[in-house]
Structure formats: structure tokens, C-alpha cells
Predict the 3D structure of the following.
Amino acid sequence: MRKYSILCFSHQKPASKIFCEKQYLSRATVFRKLSVIKEILAPFHLQFNINKLELIGSELAI
């Protein structure tokens, strides 16, 4: 999942479907593993949109 996290914050933003195909993972597996990231971001009032691979929240918080 480290690869996915790095891609999410880089300028290259592949769709989650493309990432899953290249890594031979199901979307369900990726969503399940990234739920940890959602828990980490919650105290900062940030959200992570898995479909668009973007961080959502106050600019100051990001």
C-alpha cells in the first residue's frame, strides 16, 4: 500500500482502477487497506477520496 500512498501525493494520479489492475489487487482490498489512512486523517478533519485520489479538507490542515 506504500506505493499507492506515494502515488496519491505525487503529480501522477492514476485512477484507482488502473492502479488495482497494475498491482493485481481488487478494489475491495485497496479500499480495505486504505481505511487505516482514513482513521489517521480523521482527527485532522481531513478526508481521502479514493476514487479521485485526492485529499479533502481545509487548506490549512493539509
